[in-house]
Amino acid sequence: MFDKLKSVEIRYDDLNELLSDAKIIAQQxxxxxxxxxQSDLTPIVKRFxxxxxxxxxxxxxxKILEEEKDPEMLEMAEEDLAQVTxxxxxxxxxxxxxxxxxxxxxxxxxxxxxxxxTGGEEAALFSTDLFRMYxxxxxxxxxxxxxxxxxxTGKGGFxxxxxxxxxxxxxxxxxxxxxxxxxxxxxDTESQGRIHTSAVTVAILPEVEDVDIKINPSDxxxxxxxxSGPGGQSVNTTDSAVRLTFVPTGMIVTCQxxxxxxxxxxxxxxxxxxxLYDEEQKKAHDEQDSERKQQVGSGDRSERIxxxxxxxxRVTDHRxxxxxxxxxxxxxxxxxxxxxxxxxxxxxxxxKGND
Length: 355
Fold this sequence. Notes:
By secondary structure, the chain is an alpha+beta fold. The protein has helices spanning 2-19, 22-26, 28-67, 71-99, 120-140, 170-174, 261-284, 291-296, 327-331, 336-354, and strands spanning 110-116, 144-152, 158-166, 179-185, 196-206, 220-225, 241-246, 251-255, 306-309, 314-317, 322-324. The protein has an eight-stranded mixed β-sheet with strand order 2-3-1-5-4-9-10-11. It has a three-stranded antiparallel β-sheet with strand order 6-7-8, with helices on one face. Helix 1 crosses helix 3 (28-67) and helix 3 (28-67) packs antiparallel against helix 4 (71-99).
């Protein structure tokens, strides 16, 4: 690891020189490329400098222990040695994490798809609760949320809602949210106070640009129709709703939230690109099933990554065995503790794979 850190430090110094070169400064695209690389290396170099200081302190403490005769000085040196040893282990652990290959998608915006699974109207209402939870979390992070497509039930629940979250590092924070979310609570419609279990599926797709995936326009069938709301009532009087069908696979995306056919088509294309990119990533990594299928499963109650138990005010993430008795706060967007725990777990797993 030390050799790798030295090479990173050398590259960092080279970048500093490049960024002060007038020729590079004049070439905006080159300058931005080098500036981003330097920014990515900065935390590694900073922590490496910390480690080198700590190693020097460790050697100084050991030298004192070898040469010092005074009992008080020896006791102080032993205490210093113990403290510095802990600091060294922490710095090395930090650097291992910093040296892990970055997920190139981490800084991307995401498209979130929430669908009601088992549980009928109650599942649809919980879909709305999850949408609110992610929206509140996004608000705390100063991110922007835009609904791309939605399908409401008569009681205000979402059979399906697809939305865009844009901001800094969105995918890095939300990428572990994909899967089946199970809720246990007494529905408003339950007259006898019995607890019901319902399930909702969540898919997290990194947003992609045209450069990420090429789509042949002739592969897309476009249908327009009149948008309608719950109960079949007309939302508007023009054919503004859009249905895109990707002919090679039969994949369908619909959007009817905007009054403008152009805007609905634009949003539907955004979702289609993300889904097709997801499929390409699956093939590139030679997975047995698509990332979407791995994430969302079938929407059955038994397939779950997380359970929200309202009577006990409890949220449990089954992948890492984390249980928190603060459901109300989490549903209002206070998700950082859960997200940080998931990130730490999966980073630790990645470190094991690199050992």
